[in-house]
Amino acid sequence: MIRVLLADDQSLVRAGFRALLDAQPDIGVAGEASDGEEAVRLIRELRPDVVLMDIRMPALDGLAATRRVTRDPDLADVRVVMLTTFELDEYVFEAIRSGASGFLVKDTEPEELLRAVRAVVDGDALLSPGVTRRLIAEFAARSKEPAAAGALSALTEREREVMALVGMGLSNEEIARRLVVSPLTAKTHVSRTMVKLGARDRAQLVVLAYESGLVRPGWLG
């Protein structure tokens, strides 16, 4: 059972998400929070698998709450998906850098929300359809001069290649087609790369791809 915590200051939003999630045989809502402070407290208490975290909340906003969660070693297994009203919310960029596993717009289709919850549990980054490359482009535009790529020395040439493709926004299936391998093989390469670099999930791998200079602005095509 995938345990989800809902953090949103709008009770109607929480009620809608709860009704959808609790209707699934493999997903259940572990708790609800109406502000960031309560969200962090409940996350530490309940240890959910996934947190659906609104960006704008009273007391402590979702971005600050996410930083507290992702920087706590005891909560390393908790995945945070940010919720926003707008696809290009100004805080989404920093949320990804802070360790969030992705974000969804609140009016996303129910099937997409369910896919999101299941995907982040499997270690995948989750971004609303059509937004991945734009978010990466935004990261590229804001990123500083690449740091030394010494951290990548532990990677094989194929793992570097896979990491670059992840950084360009390709899914495992797209990577598999590009490299002429099976999707399972592509996923294995991605997983090994994350382990070697200590990345929480795919979203952080994208960040590292840019910060190391492995992927540069203008490579998105």
Description of the structure:
The structure is a single chain. Strands 2-1-3-4-5-6 form a six-stranded parallel β-sheet, with helices on both faces. The protein is built from ten helices and six strands, in the order E-H-E-H-E-H-E-H-E-H-E-H-H-H-H-H. The model has no long low-confidence stretch (mean pLDDT 83). With 221 residues, the chain is an alpha/beta fold.
Structure characteristics:
221 residues; alpha/beta
Structural class: alpha/beta
Q: What's the β-strand tally?
A: 6
Distance between the termini: 40 Å
Strand content: 5-15%
- Kindly state the percentage of residues in helix: 40-55%
The general outline is globular
Question: What is the number of helical segments per DSSP (H or I, 4+ residues)?
Answer: 10
Spans where pLDDT lies below 50 across 5 or more residues: none
Strand order of the largest sheet: 2-1-3-4-5-6
Q: On the 0-100 scale, what is the average pLDDT?
A: 83
Sheet of most strands: 6 strands, parallel
- Sketch the topology as an H/E string, one letter per element: EHEHEHEHEHEHHHHH
Radius of gyration based on Cα positions = 17 Å
Q: What's this, in brief?
A:
With 221 residues, the protein is an alpha/beta fold. The chain contains 10 helices and 6 strands; from the N terminus they run βαβαβαβαβαβααααα. It has helices spanning 11-22, 36-46, 62-70, 92-97, 110-121, 132-142, 157-167, 172-179, 183-197, 202-211, and strands spanning 2-7, 27-33, 50-54, 79-84, 102-105, 126-127.
List the helices and strands and how they pair.
Layout: E1 2-7, H1 11-22, E2 27-33, H2 36-46, E3 50-54, H3 62-70, E4 79-84, H4 92-97, E5 102-105, H5 110-121, E6 126-127, H6 132-142, H7 157-167, H8 172-179, H9 183-197, H10 202-211
Parallel strand pairs: 1-2, 1-3, 3-4, 4-5, 5-6
